[in-house]
Amino acid sequence: MNREFGPQSAARFGSVTSDGRPTPRVRDGVRAALPLVLGPILFGLSYGVLAEEAGMSAVAAVVMSATTFAGSAQFAAASVLEDGGTVLAAVVSAVLLNVRYIGQSIAAASIFPGSRPRKFVESQLIVDESWALSGRSGRFEWPILVGAGLLLYVLWVTSTAIGSVVGSVLGDPNDLGLDAAFAALFLALARPYLRERKAVAAALIAVAITLVLIPLAPAGVPLVAASAACLLGLKR
Amino acid sequence: MSGIWIVVLVVGAFTMVFKAAGPVFLGTRRLHAKAQSVVALVAPVMLTGLVVTQAVGGAEEIVVDARIPGVAAAGIAIWRGAPIVVAMVVAALVTALVRVAL
Fold this sequence. Notes:
The complex is a heterodimer.
Chain A: H1 9-13, H2 26-33, H3 38-53, H4 58-67, H5 71-82, H6 87-98, H7 100-107, H8 116-123, H9 128-134, H10 142-170, H11 178-190, H12 197-213, H13 221-226
Chain B: H1 3-26, H2 33-39, H3 42-56, H4 67-79, H5 84-101
Helix pairs in contact in B: 4-5
């Protein structure tokens, strides 16, 4: 995230990049995301089910997937609402969870070509997976981000729609252990970040704050308070 | 407007602006180094917090139930390099089995 990324526009029109590799195309991005498709399909279905549990209509669940397009924040919002948390708590915990996209967006800023409206639209395809894939060669590549992002977006929105409709006939998803599966999802998403000592320390503080506040505060508030652990970043 | 639509639209609007922040609003300018290191901790902090609320959270109380063995089994799978989907299936399966057994 701290690397410098030069403008890529020249490379996009040539047949090879400056380091001699063939210039990737959007379909290469689609192909790069193929091994990941089970994720958005299953998570999208699960999100549809949880959203339905949380009292969201199928339309609301699909609109959220189409506009927010960020699994963990959507799960957080639905999970706070399902626990009976307030609207404010759901919004704040989901928004805080997505603050990381500012950092990802800034890191990949220079690869987006064209006018501001075009940049706005294409940057909506930034999601953890497409962002990570587009930077896997050591510098961010627009075709990979857009190709991978498009595939993940279509799968995410479609499976949300299916999940929110089918979910209503599945019965209690917790009988299937889906509540634990959501915890496992967050744990797995957290895992790659927990390689640095400071991140582990901040995560442990967050766990402590959350555990202390769950019995004391309304649902959602413990998560918001736990975000104070991010201030550990100010420490050297 | 119902509370649910407020959540959907406000979270959607914030997220769209966050994702566009770099290309549209900042161009090639960079965040201050200190701000960057705070932002870098948001994901691990929020995600581990969510693990806790999802694994032991109840209606303003800590609930210890069949989710714990499920999440523990998934944790072992994750630390051994299992893909996310496998970890989710392990958690669901173990929790569902414990619920049936109890």
